[in-house]
C-alpha cells in the first residue's frame, strides 16, 4: 500500500503527543507500583497493573497502537505473557465516522453515485472500529451485503505512528538488555501486519482462498466477496446472519457438535491448508440459522509452508510422547536461528528448560491437559531463551489456544489432542537429531 508523504511538522506534533501520553502513563505506572509495594501486593498484582497501564496507553494513543497492541497479544514469544494477556482484552470499538465520509469513500473509489450501486445503505453502522466500520446494504439484485469502509486518513495516521515507533525502537535498541529482543525488527513486523489489515484487497484474497479451501466442507462458510464493489478501501461481502458462537447454548444448535466442528475446522486450516485465520476471537465466529459455522473478519492470517506444517505436527507428536528433547530441537529448527552457529551453553539451557517443563506433565492423561496453556507457556520459554520462531508458528499457537478455550466453554470434555491425533500420526517424530 502506498503511503502518503510525511510532513515533518505533523510527524513532530504527533511525536510530541505520543511522548506526552507515554510520560503520563509512565508516571501513573510508578505511582501505582509504589502504592502496591507499600500494600505488600504480590508479583502477580504488580504485573497485572503493568499490563493494565500498557492497555490504557495503547487505547489512548488510538488506531495504530490499538492494532499493534492486538497483534502483540498474539506474540507471547516476544513479550511477557502477562502483557500479551492484558493486550488480548484490548478492543478497538470507537465512535463511528460520519456517513458523509462513507459516501465520499464509496463514490470516490467506485466512481458512481451510491444510489446506483446499492438500492439501500444503512447510515448507522453495524460495527465501528479504529480503522473501519461496517454497514448493512442491499444490492440492485436484492442480495443483502455487508460493506466495510475504511476510516478517513487512517493510512496516513498509521504511517505517522509507525514512523514514531521506529524512532522509539532505535532508541531502545541501544539498551543491551532490550536489544536482544530486536525491537527494530519487531516494529517492522508489526507494521507490516497493520498495513496488511488496511488494504482490503488482501482481506478479499484471504476470503477467496478460505472459500476455495473449504469448498468441500458445507458446514463451514465464509463471506463471498462482491468483486465489482470492492477496492483497497471498500470491501463488499455477502451478509451472514448468525449468532455469536458463545451464545450457541441459547440456540437450537448442539454446543458439543459446534465445539467439535470448530476444532476440526482449525485442524484442517493448520495441517491440511497451512492457511490459518489469525483473529479467531468469539466475535468473529458465528452459528448460522441452518447450523453452519461462519468465520468473519479475515484480514489477518498465518501461513505455514509444508516444512512448517510437518514440523508443527512433529512437535505435537513429540508432546504426546512427552519427548522434551525432540520438542526443543524441533522448535529450534523452525526458529530464525536455525542454520546458524549456536552457543552450545545457551542451547543446553534452553533444551533443559523445555525438558523440565514437559516433565511437569508426567502422570497426566493427554485429555486432562489444556493444550492452549501449554503452548502459551512454551512460547514464554522461547522468549526467555531468545529463540525467535516463525511468526506464523506463534499465530497458530494462539489460534489453537483461543479455539480450545472457546470449545471448552461449549463442551468441557472437549479433547484437542484426540481430535488432532490423526494429523500427528501422519508425521511421527523422527528423532531430535533430525530436527
Helix content: 55-70%
Q: Label the overall shape.
A: globular
- Which consecutive residue ranges, at least 5 long each, have pLDDT under 50? 431-435
Q: Could you tell me how far the N terminus lies from the C terminus, measured between alpha carbons in angstroms?
A: 38 Å
Task: Provide the gyration radius in Å.
Answer: 23 Å
Number of DSSP-assigned strands = 11
The string of secondary-structure elements, in order, is HHHHHHEEEEHHHHEEEHEEEEHHHHHH
* Mean pLDDT across all amino acids: 85
The percent range for strand residues is 5-15%
Structure description:
The structure is a single chain. This protein has 435 residues and is an alpha+beta fold. The chain has a domain at 242-435. The chain has 17 helices and eleven strands. The strands form three sheets. Strands 1, 2, 3, 4 and 6 form a five-stranded antiparallel sheet that branches. Strand 2 and strand 3 (132-138) form a beta hairpin. Helix 11 packs antiparallel against helix 16 (391-410), helix 12 packs antiparallel against helix 13 (324-333) and helix 15 (371-384) packs antiparallel against helix 16 (391-410). The radius of gyration is 23 Å and the shape is globular. The protein starts with 7 loop residues before the first helix and ends in a 10-residue tail after the last helix.
Jot down its keywords:
alpha+beta; four-stranded mixed beta sheet; 17 helices; five-stranded antiparallel beta sheet; globular
Q: What is the topological layout?
A:
Layout: H1 8-38, H2 43-61, H3 63-72, H4 81-87, H5 99-110, H6 114-117, E1 120-121, E2 127-128, E3 132-138, E4 144-150, H7 154-172, H8 176-179, H9 183-198, H10 200-213, E5 220-221, E6 234-238, E7 243-244, H11 255-273, E8 275-277, E9 285-287, E10 293-295, E11 301-303, H12 306-320, H13 324-333, H14 344-359, H15 371-384, H16 391-410, H17 416-425
Helix pairs in contact: 1-2, 1-7, 2-3, 2-4, 3-9, 7-9, 11-16, 11-17, 12-13, 12-17, 13-14, 15-16
Amino acid at each position: 500500500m502506498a503511503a502518503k508523504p510525511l510532513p515533518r511538522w505533523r510527524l513532530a506534533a504527533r511525536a510530541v503527543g505520543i511522548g506526552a501520553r507515554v510520560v503520563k502513563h509512565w508516571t501513573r505506572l510508578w505511582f501505582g507500583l509504589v502504592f502496591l509495594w507499600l500494600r505488600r501486593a504480590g508479583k502477580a498484582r504488580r504485573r497485572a497493573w503493568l499490563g493494565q497501564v500498557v492497555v490504557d496507553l495503547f487505547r489512548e494513543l488510538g488506531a495504530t497502537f490499538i492494532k499493534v497492541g492486538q497483534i502483540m497479544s498474539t506474540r507471547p514469544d516476544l513479550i511477557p505473557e502477562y502483557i500479551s494477556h492484558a493486550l488480548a482484552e484490548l478492543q478497538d470499538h470507537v465512535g463511528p465516522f460520519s456517513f458523509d465520509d462513507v459516501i465520499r469513500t464509496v463514490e470516490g473509489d467506485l466512481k458512481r453515485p451510491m444510489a446506483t450501486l446499492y438500492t439501500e445503505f444503512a447510515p448507522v453502522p453495524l460495527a465501528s472500529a479504529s480503522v473501519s466500520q461496517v454497514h448493512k446494504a442491499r444490492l440492485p439484485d436484492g442480495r443483502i451485503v455487508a460493506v466495510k469502509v475504511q476510516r478517513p486518513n487512517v493510512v496516513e495516521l498509521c504511517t505517522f505512528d509507525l514512523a514514531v515507533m521506529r524512532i522509539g525502537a532505535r532508541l531502545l535498541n541501544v539498551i543491551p538488555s532490550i536489544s536482544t529482543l530486536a525491537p527494530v525488527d519487531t516494529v517492522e513486523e508489526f507494521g507490516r501486519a497493520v498495513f496488511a489489515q488496511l488494504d482490503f484487497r488482501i482481506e478479499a484474497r484471504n476470503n477467496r482462498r478460505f472459500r476455495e479451501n473449504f469448498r468441500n466442507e458445507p458446514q463451514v462458510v465464509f463471506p463471498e466477496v462482491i468483486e465489482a464493489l470492492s477496492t483497497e478501501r471498500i470491501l463488499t461481502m455477502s451478509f451472514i446472519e448468525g449468532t455469536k458462537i458463545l451464545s450457541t447454548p441459547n440456540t437450537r444448535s448442539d454446543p458439543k457438535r459446534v465445539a467439535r466442528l470448530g476444532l476440526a475446522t482449525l485442524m484442517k486450516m493448520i495441517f491440511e491448508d497451512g492457511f490459518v485465520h489469525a483473529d479467531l476471537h468469539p466475535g468473529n465466529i458465528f452459528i448460522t440459522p441452518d447450523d453452519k459455522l461462519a468465520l468473519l473478519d479475515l484480514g489477518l492470517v498465518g501461513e505455514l509452508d509444508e516444512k512448517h506444517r510437518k514440523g508443527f505436527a512433529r512437535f505435537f507428536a513429540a508432546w504426546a510422547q512427552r519427548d522434551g528433547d525432540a520438542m526443543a530441537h524441533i522448535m529450534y529448527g523452525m526458529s530464525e536461528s536455525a542454520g546458524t552457529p549456536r552457543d552450545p551453553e545457551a542451547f543446553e539451557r534452553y533444551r533443559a528448560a523445555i525438558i523440565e517443563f514437559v516433565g511437569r506433565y508426567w502422570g497426566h492423561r493427554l485429555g486432562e491437559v489444556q493444550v492452549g496453556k501449554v503452548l502459551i507457556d512454551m512460547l514464554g520459554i522461547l522468549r526467555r531463551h531468545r529463540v525467535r520462531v516463525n511468526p506464523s508458528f506463534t499465530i497458530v499457537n494462539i489460534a489453537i489456544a483461543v479455539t480450545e478455550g472457546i470449545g471448552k466453554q461449549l463442551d468441557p470434555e472437549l479433547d484437542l489432542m484426540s481430535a488432532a491425533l490423526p494429523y500427528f500420526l501422519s508425521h511421527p517424530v523422527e528423532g531430535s537429531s533430525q530436527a
